[in-house]
Design goal:
Length: 161
């Protein structure tokens, strides 16, 4: 990413801004408080999300190495739960503890339907996973912004384990 940023003249902050916009729910970005003023030709930050990204994107570059971002992306791209097994079901059979899945309705990076597929497969191999799909308009950032809701769900789950 560092080399890519240097070649294109883009900074890590700008890459982070783009990825954040791509992963944030359209419902959040286009909410009422983000509506532009009358002049749509002003490029100084019409939307609240732009100010948020500018501030947090700069902070992000102070403590996050661009190369580590490449490794995270690579790990996400190549991860295969069934690697070394005959099937995904075979891999899921190896899970012994009780499991809890938490998803968010507006998360485009980890869409709930993918978790639903895992939950279904786990049930087919005899497990009893719990899955909670939280209604949220925060997109992928919901896991950061819906902490109280998640805390209650996790506490309830742990009380039963």
């Amino acid at each position: 990413m560092t080399m890519l940023c240097q070649l294109t003249g883009w900074r890590l902050q700008e890459w982070q801004d783009i990825s954040h916009i791509c992963l944030t729910s359209l419902f959040t970005i286009n909410s009422a408080e983000d509506m532009p003023p009358l002049s749509i030709y002003d490029f100084k930050g019409l939307f609240e999300v732009e100010n948020y990204l500018r501030y947090n994107g700069y902070k992000f570059t102070e403590y996050f190495d661009a190369n580590s971002y490449l490794y995270v992306l690579k790990a996400m791209d190549i991860f295969d739960l069934s690697y070394g097994r005959n099937s995904l079901k075979d891999s899921l059979r190896l899970i012994s503890p009780k499991t809890l899945f938490i998803t968010f309705t507006s998360d485009f990076l980890f869409p709930p339907y993918q978790t639903e597929e895992l939950v279904t497969l786990m049930k087919e191999v005899g497990h009893e996973p719990e899955w909670v799909n939280i209604e949220s308009s925060y997109g992928h950032d919901a896991f950061l912004l819906e902490a109280e809701t998640q805390t209650d769900i996790i506490k309830d789950f742990l009380a039963k384990v």
